[in-house]
Design brief:
The protein is α+β, with helices and mostly antiparallel strands. Helices cover 51% and strands 11% of the residues. The strands form 4 sheets. It has a 7-stranded mixed beta sheet. A two-stranded antiparallel sheet has the order 6-7. This is CCA tRNA nucleotidyltransferase. Keywords: Magnesium, Metal-binding, Nucleotide-binding, Nucleotidyltransferase, Transferase, tRNA processing.
């Protein structure tokens, strides 16, 4: 195996990982030979090489080539199971190939490989443009120079398995350091989104960001303004869904980038008043996020993580200093829910996700009215009804919101919430709380009252629903009697 650096710089495990691209991923070798026979060069590149060296290469493979997009299409069409060309304007062709991730034809299970092949390129932004200008290059070294970070600027030429590392990405990988191939100023000028990517990779890989990169991020933070909300959102999502989101979020706040893309986060760093004490809302919110992550049971949950991060964003606007040195944040959950909706709309999140996150923010304090278990069954039913399908997430968010260092207080809160969950479970088993509905449906209401569809049916339905929440299941006869009495009162 050859390299632009000495191959001795690879340790045995890394040499096996890079060499294993051929042995364990024959699909890559097959593709490399296909391009070679057509007179083109192909290399595994970027995150795929980085992940191979970290021992975590999956089914998403990125390649770069000197072939132009139309030529890539022509080579892939007879070979791939599916092709998409939505990125062809940027020189990228995507494909799906069902293949074995091992050279063993008997024991190797078939996998769907997601493949992206991009023509050697360089890209830059006009000062006021939201879209990059793309120009094609002729060499892999040219292509690697335009990559975001050195750990993503390594390649393995196929099928020869030549390791290409002109910017010492391997050394930075070993040092767990994020640097840019060229100057960070030029890199971020070419694509300002890379500043967010620095924070995202710090969070995903648990890497440090080089001081000169942090300086450039700070000095150039305003450049992020030209990047579309959709691209910003995608990076924020990846950061939040990473293993170490606090690390990335701290970097965004410290460099001033958060002030431009998620200003509600740095706003949580409320100034302390020597006479008025309150917990650090900013650090508290990051801790709640981490504690929510610890409670996840089915993988990263973007809805829960966004709600945890944003649950207290209404506090700066509602802070009031009280006599005697206290601080209050009355109705911050309602203000925060509105703020969450506004910010998420600006970041182009889906309506469904906006509704779910803002609802969790709105409900996150509800439990604190539970006290020592004074809620009636009616109040428990309303808690479940208001949470709806978000109930399990609300459980996790509420538990995560306890960041007190007072172990006795924390244990008491946990026991109280355990008791609430047990009451919910009992009522759910007894009353099917997950689908709280009136004892009569709309057709039955119309037949009983002799009315046609309209506003009065909705009012009758709402009346019966309130009875159901207050009293639990009543049965059809009791519900009919109550409805008749309600209707007679309206008519009188």
């Amino acid at each position: 195996m050859h390299s632009t650096e000495s191959s001795d710089s690879l340790n045995a495990a890394q040499r096996a990982a890079v060499g294993g691209v051929l042995g364990a991923y024959p699909v890559a070798d097959e593709l490399g030979r296909r391009f070679q026979q057509a007179g083109f060069r192909l290399a595994l590149v970027g995150g795929s090489v980085r992940d191979a060296l970290l021992g975590r290469l999956g089914n998403d493979l990125d390649f770069t080539t000197d072939a132009r997009p139309e030529q890539i299409l022509a080579l892939l069409k007879p070979w791939a199971d599916a092709i998409w060309d939505v990125g062809i304007a940027f020189g990228t062709v995507g494909a799906r190939k069902k293949a074995r991730p091992t050279a063993d034809p008997v024991h190797g299970e078939l996998f769907d490989f997601q493949i992206e092949i991009t023509t050697y390129r360089s890209e830059a932004y006009d000062r006021d443009s939201r879209k990059p200008e793309v120009s094609y290059g002729d060499t892999i070294e040219e292509d690697l120079l335009r990559r975001d970070f050195t750990v993503n600027a390594m390649a393995v030429a196929l099928p020869e398995l030549v390791f290409v590392d002109p910017h010492h990405g391997l050394a930075d990988l070993a040092a767990k350091l994020l640097r840019t191939p060229g100057t960070p100023e030029q890199s971020f000028s070419d694509d300002p989104l890379r500043m967010l990517r620095a924070a995202r990779f710090a969070a995903q890989l648990d890497f440090e960001v080089a001081p000169e990169v942090v300086t450039a991020m700070t000095e150039m933070a305003e450049r992020i303004d030209i990047v579309s909300a959709e691209r910003v959102q995608a990076e924020l999502n990846k950061l939040l869904l990473s293993a170490h989101p606090r690390q990335g979020l701290l970097l965004l706040v410290d460099t001033g980038l958060a002030a431009r893309v998620l200003p509600e986060l740095p706003a949580l760093r409320l100034e302390r008043d020597e006479h008025h004490r309150h917990k650090d809302v900013y650090d508290h919110s990051l801790t709640v996020l981490e504690q929510a992550i610890d409670l996840e049971t089915e993988g990263p949950d973007l809805t829960l993580r966004l709600a945890a991060l944003l649950h207290d964003i209404g506090k700066p606007r509602t802070r009031r200093f009280e006599e005697g040195g206290g601080v209050s944040f009355h109705h911050h959950e309602l203000v925060g829910a509105k703020m969450a909706k506004k910010r998420m709309r600006e970041l182009k999140y889906s309506n469904e996700l906006i509704a779910d996150v803002s609802r969790l923010v709105e409900l996150h304090l509800r439990f604190h009215g539970y006290g020592e278990g004074e809620w009636t069954d009616s109040a428990v039913r309303r808690y479940v009804r208001d949470a709806g399908p978000l109930l399990e997430r609300l459980h996790k968010l509420t538990r995560s919101d306890c960041t007190t260092r007072n172990r006795k207080k924390a244990a008491a809160l946990s026991r109280t919430y355990d008791a609430l969950e047990q009451r919910i479970a009992v009522l759910q088993e007894r009353e099917e709380l997950d689908a709280i509905r009136p004892d009569l449906n709309g057709d039955e209401i119309m037949a009983l009252l002799g009315i046609r569809p309209g506003r009065e049916v909705g009012e009758a339905y709402k009346f019966l629903l309130e009875l159901r929440l207050e009293n639990g299941p009543m049965g059809p006869e009791a519900a009919e009697a109550a409805l008749r009495a309600w209707w007679a009162g309206r008519q009188g």
